Amino acid sequence: MSISIAMRSPCFMGKLNSLIAHSSALMGLLLPAGGALAQAVLTPHVNAAPPNALALAAAAAGVQQCLPELSALSALGMQGTVNNDVLLDWDRTRANAAVAFSLIGLQYANVTAAMSVTAVPEADGACTLSAERISVAPFACPGVAQQELTGYQATQLLEHMTVYTDAKDPGSSVSLIDAPPVCLVIRRYVKFMAKVKH
Fold first, then answer.
1. Residue 49's pLDDT is what?
2. Is the dihedral of CA 116, 83, 181, 141 positive or negative?
3. H/E segment holding residue 132
4. Quick check: pTM over 0.90?
């Protein structure tokens, strides 16, 4: 049996950072040098990343063996986002020994994308991972390939779908699907028996 949950990580850091910036300026006038040193520790960075909804949801569900890999991979996919949300499916009766499926919504300043991450716990303590990041480029696919995929090997999969691979990264591929006037971009990553170094 599997169940799904959605976890929200609201982004209110903009207003909070503005308030903290004004408070820090005032505290800098009121505190001696020792107090000024503490401000850097207490004041969050303006571009602080939002909480990793997948890592939080997987931990709450009881996923342990694959949690480091899920956290690391989803963190990479969330770089540059202002918010993220997740739909997680897992076997409630054996959360740590079964496959975990997730769909992450990625919100950037002006666009939204999605990332699907699947983790399969292996008997030796490692995990097999599969991830796909799906986005839309607001121009034709040849332009995307020219800008982002120079040096990649192109394989025509269907009339309007081309898959790009790089020999230096055999576990990854980028698929471009023509949908004029936009291009659907699917970045795929597969890693068998992955293990994050602690």
1. 75
2. negative
3. strand 127-137
4. no
